[in-house]
From TrEMBL:
InterPro entries: Cyt_P450, Cyt_P450_CS, Cyt_P450_E_grp-I, Cyt_P450_sf, Cytochrome_P450_monoxygenase, Lactonase_7-beta_prop, N2O_reductase_N, WD40/YVTN_repeat-like_dom_sf. Keywords: Heme, Iron, Metal-binding. It comes from Cudoniella acicularis. The keyword Metal-binding applies. It holds the Pfam family p450. GO terms for molecular function: heme binding; iron ion binding; monooxygenase activity; oxidoreductase activity, acting on paired donors, with incorporation or reduction of molecular oxygen. Transmembrane segments: none annotated. Heme binds at C451. This is Cytochrome P450.
Length: 1025
């Protein structure tokens, strides 16, 4: 203090200047030499200071600069003192998915923080619980069922787009064409549509053929946000930098937010019911408990941009590329015009099967991603691994989707616009696109913060492009826009794309023609057979140095953490420690032993026979006998929305303890595996893909090895949203229920285990059901076969029907019969049949018993669980010649003698193997608590429930026996082993599979004996028995 008092003003100023100069210099030296991230590749100047990053960001060149850096330094690079960016596929799951045993990567508040003076929104909520709370409320407005209800609104603005473009023809001259900026018109369309869906107020851009003043305000607000973000990089002087931001920019943000507030409040004061986003929010948030008014306002301020500008960007970029390739445009025009004779026939469902349209849009999303950078997350406290590399807690990590999507390592001619890569022919081995990694193209993001509006975006894009090329002949005017060179300020800054439009010459003729278009039910997309894409070794090569071991060893080793991988596909992996090497060997030994013991378990062998069976193992007879008494192994298969079917092995040791181990994973049913069906006779496993990130679902067949590794046999595209399947007609065919596609499809099973398409049944509603939010369309939720193998039964949640189809035993064809109506608004979901005693005796006496109606009528019952009403109902089943009758004999709430919790949603219903008990599950009501599976953690886990009901085989009535914990959240599906003493539960929101003991005598569930984390939302689990 005395020293400073003795210094003059000039000396103090000099000291301050020296400190201001030397501190950044010293800090820069530290950053490039001693900082924990100094070892990662990247330009030294970027690693030393944030300034190069900020300069690139504010000039709109960040996306291009980082892509060049990835090309120079590899898939993992350092772009700022405390930021690492990735362009490797593995980083998708590691950063954005919730991994078992890992903490979530929270959003980086620098990028996601709330603007000054505004409340927290769904996007800016740092807490995953808060984000999930808001997302649950908003999610109802973005579901497939909501989209069906919103279709008239979407069609209205698509028609207005076409009509207003037609009005431009001849405006400036007497010619039969017009020159327009299609970028502006796509923006008019998307913003007007969101204005209506979000606020019940169109911006009237289409009506007036110009931007609403608020739209310009939104565009400027995006740039203003860039300045706000830049200031946050320096928290110590953040407040000073914020004050330096021009008042005009701050006013842009406040004006934008105030406009949203006014629109939200006007919409809320209108006492109307319409299928828009705000109506869904209020129906599921009546008292503003789940989402406050301020949170709604702040969130809709984000949605106004996210749900409009991004879709317009993809439409504009895709159309720009189409016009650069006249031959592609011609193919798309021919597809649209050959499928539809009238514009009004272009419904959202009718457009989904257009293969080339979907391919064009998928390729547009790849080369013109609306959000080229996935905004950063923070590595959790304590550190975590990404791509096999450990990073310190607090490190900012981002993902470069544009750089990944344009990487020649993963795509043939990666920078070229080639929709053919998305056609089924591209999956053939002789195609140049055969090795393209289409599953890594995730433009809508991944995980709990993935885009809510992807279904709406797909609907808008299909409709706008299809109707435009159907109605008009189009061509470029001037020079095409080089889309890859456009600047990015969080979003792409688009340039005008000038095109000439002419109304198609035969349009007048079409309007007066007598012919009619093909009906959608007849022209539904055939299940396009495609060769199953095989995993690329360069992408999934996660092996130790075990080159001399058998192939099964390498398959097993694939599931463990990687060692260093040399080559361009690597993710800058670090060398493995020597003590880690035994892990795959241990798994290998267990796998080989289980394979061997399973193979001899059916017919006990003598010690001498056992020795002859496997002499290479050099095991004595006494050792074999001892080992068979100490290890019992069973395989299970698990599907999850992470994209994989995971093979698990359940091992029971001599001390009666169990353990679950991951054996392998297969991504053949990606991106959204939703259901598994195992043929107990052939061993073939059938998997469904719900197709969340693509216009169609898919169905695959797999051959399992004795060690549990699945090999894909066949794969086909299906109608949208398949969620359940069942084998019928003695295993000759498969019936599939399509929740999102409002359909039932059938598939013939080939001798090879492959599949060929059968029939498609599409269902419609004349009006929404008693619960319009969930019953705006038919939603078949499960396909079941009756005990006589003569009928397929389909509970339809959306239509409140039990649909019935008779089976032609000669052809496996189905014939739709009169459906049975259930209580309005009950939402039937799943069910199970109890066969009569006479029928069971017939089957026992004769394999392939030809059951008679009399045998079936004498004690056959059907148990139905209804999701919306949360009820379990018993029906006595009566058989006609080609029909089924249902007579209700019992009904109870899903929770038996307890009050049904608010928000509960019934899920699964199955019979125990002895047919003495009905077992059910319920979700979204974690009313029980269980000890943590991590014994070092004293925090209890909230759990949903399973229920057990005893069955009176004479009357079909049920008696509630037990309410048991399911082991976590959202037991969407579960199954029981053949012996009936173990249950495997798939917990969707807990990303976990648990195994429970079950008492076969009293039907109750017992203690948890094993559990394992499975990446993503678990959708089904089946036993390999």
């Amino acid at each position: 203090m005395i020293l400073f008092e003795s210094l003059g003003l000039l000396q103090c100023i000099c000291i301050a200047v020296v400190l201001l100069v030397t501190y950044p210099l010293c800090r820069g030296i530290y950053n490039v030499t001693f900082h924990p991230l100094a070892r990662f590749p990247g330009p030294r100047l970027w690693g030393a200071s944030r300034i190069p990053f900020i300069r690139s960001f504010l000039t709109g060149n960040l996306v291009h600069d980082i892509e060049k850096l990835h090309q120079q330094y590899g898939p993992t690079i350092r772009i700022a003192p405390n930021e690492i960016t990735f362009s490797h596929p593995d980083a998708w799951n590691d950063i954005f998915q919730l991994r078992p045993g890992h903490l979530p990567f929270e959003i980086d508040p620098v990028w996601w923080g709330t603007p000054p003076g505004q409340p927290e929104s769904m996007a800016s909520a740092a807490s995953e619980m808060v984000h999930r709370r808001m997302r649950r409320v908003l999610g109802y407005g973005f579901t497939q069922r909501a989209l069906r209800a919103q279709e008239p609104i979407i069609q209205k603005y698509a028609s207005m787009l076409i009509d207003r473009l037609r009005d431009q023809i001849g405006v400036s001259s007497n010619s039969d064409d017009a020159v327009v900026d299609i970028v502006s018109w796509f923006n008019f369309f998307t913003f007007d549509l969101f204005g209506d869906l979000g606020f019940d107020e169109s911006f009237e851009c289409l009506q007036h053929s110009e931007y609403h003043p608020w739209i310009s305000l939104i565009f400027n607000n995006i740039k203003a946000t860039c300045f706000i973000i830049t200031a946050r990089f320096y928290p110590l002087i953040d407040s000073i930098l914020v004050k330096c931001i021009p008042k005009s920019i701050k006013k842009l943000q406040s004006d934008h937010y105030q406009q949203v507030r006014d629109k939200v409040q006007r919409r809320l004061t209108r006492e109307i019911q319409r299928p828009d986003l705000m109506d869904s929010v209020m129906k599921n948030n009546e008292k503003l408990e789940s989402m406050s008014l301020q949170e709604i306002e702040s969130t809709f301020a984000i949605l106004a941009i996210a749900a409009s500008e991004t879709t317009a960007t993809v439409l504009s970029g895709t159309f720009n590329h189409l016009l650069c390739h006249p031959e592609m445009l011609k193919t798309l025009v021919e597809e649209a015009r050959s499928h539809f004779a009238k514009e009004e026939d272009m419904t959202l469902d009718a457009l989904k099967p257009l293969a080339y349209l979907n391919a064009v849009l998928n390729e547009g999303l790849r080369v013109c991603p609306p959000v080229p950078i996935m905004l950063p997350r923070l590595v959790p406290k304590g550190g975590d691994t990404i791509c096999g590399i450990r990073f310190p807690g607090g490190t900012s990590v981002s993902f470069q989707s544009r750089a990944l999507f344009r990487n020649p390592e993963y795509f043939h001619k990666s920078t070229s616009f080639l929709p053919e890569r998305y056609l089924p022919e591209a999956r053939k081995p002789d195609s140049p696109f055969y090795n393209d990694k289409l599953d890594i193209v995730l433009p809508f993001g991944l995980g709990l913060r993935g885009c809510l509006g992807k279904d709406l975006a797909w609907a808008e894009m299909r409709l706008a492009i299809a109707r435009l090329v159907w109605r008009f002949d189009v061509e470029f005017v001037g020079t095409p826009v080089k889309w890859e060179e456009l600047k990015t300020f969080l979003l792409v800054e688009k340039k005008p794309v000038m095109i000439r439009i002419r109304e198609r010459k035969d349009f007048t003729l079409l309007q007066s023609s007598e012919f009619r278009p093909q009906q959608w039910a007849r022209s539904a997309l055939p299940a396009l057979k495609s060769s199953a894409p095989r995993p690329d070794p360069s992408l999934f090569r996660r092996r130790y140095a075990l080159h001399r071991l058998p192939r099964t060893v390498l398959s097993t080793a694939d599931v463990h953490p990687p060692s260093r991988f040399i080559g361009p596909s690597g993710c800058n992996r670090l060398p493995i420690k020597m003590w880690q090497l035994p892990i795959p060997i241990v798994v290998l030994v267990l796998s080989q032993l289980c394979t061997f013991f399973n193979s001899i378990s059916a017919t006990p062998l003598s010690a001498q026979q056992a020795m002859r069976f496997s002499p290479a193992r050099l095991l004595s007879a006494s050792v074999l006998v001892n080992l068979t008494s100490t290890a019992v192994c069973t395989n299970l298969y698990v599907s999850s929305y992470a994209g994989d079917i995971t093979s698990l092995q359940l091992i029971k040791s001599a001390d009666d303890t169990y353990s679950l181990t991951k054996i392998a994973a297969n991504n053949g049913s990606s991106p959204s595996p939703t259901w598994l069906e195992k043929d107990s006779k052939t061993g073939i496993v059938y998997g469904l893909d719900e197709g969340f990130t693509s216009p169609n679902g898919s169905i695959s067949s797999y051959k399992p090895s004795s060690s549990g590794v699945l090999t894909q046999i066949d794969r086909h595209l299906t109608l949208g949203g398949p969620v359940s399947s069942i084998l019928y007609n003695e295993g000759k065919s498969l019936a599939v229920a399509h929740y999102g596609g409002s359909a039932l499809s059938t598939w013939n099973i080939l001798p090879t285990g492959g599949l060929s398409p059968g029939q498609n049944f599409l269902f419609t509603l004349t009006k929404p059901g008693a619960n319009p939010a969930r019953q705006e369309a038919p939603h078949p939720h499960e396909a079941l076969v009756d005990p006589t193998d003569s009928f397929i039964v389909v509970p339809d949640l959306g239509a409140d029907l039990i649909r019935v189809f008779s089976i032609d035993k000669a052809t496996s064809d189905l014939t739709e019969q009169t459906p049975f109506p259930v209580a309005a608004g009950s939402g039937p979901r799943h069910g199970a049949f109890l066969e009569s005693a006479a029928l069971k005796a017939c089957k026992k006496e004769s394999y392939g018993c030809m059951a008679t109606s009399a045998q079936a009528n004498n004690g056959t019952f059907f148990f139905l669980i209804s999701e919306l009403a949360n009820t379990v109902t018993s029906y006595k089943v009566t058989y006609g010649e080609k029909s089924l009758g249902f007579e209700q004999v019992f009904q109870s709430g899903t929770y038996g003698n307890q009050t049904t919790p608010v928000g509960a949603a019934s899920a699964e219903a199955i019979l125990s193997p002895d047919h003495k008990y009905l077992l059910t599950s319920s979700r979204n009501a974690t009313i029980l608590n269980i000890p943590n599976f991590n014994t070092t953690n004293s925090t209890t886990l909230p759990s949903d429930t399973l229920q057990s009901w005893s069955i009176n085989p004479t009357t079909g009535k049920l008696t509630f026996e037990q309410l048991a914990p399911a082991g976590g959240a959202f037991p969407r599906q579960f199954s029981v082993n053949k012996k009936g003493d173990l249950a495997a539960v798939g917990l969707q929101q807990s990303a976990r599979v648990v195994i429970l003991e079950r008492n076969v005598l009293d039907g109750t569930f017992g203690k948890f004996v094993a559990e394992i984390g499975v990446p993503g939302e678990v959708t089904s689990v089946v036993w390999d028995e």
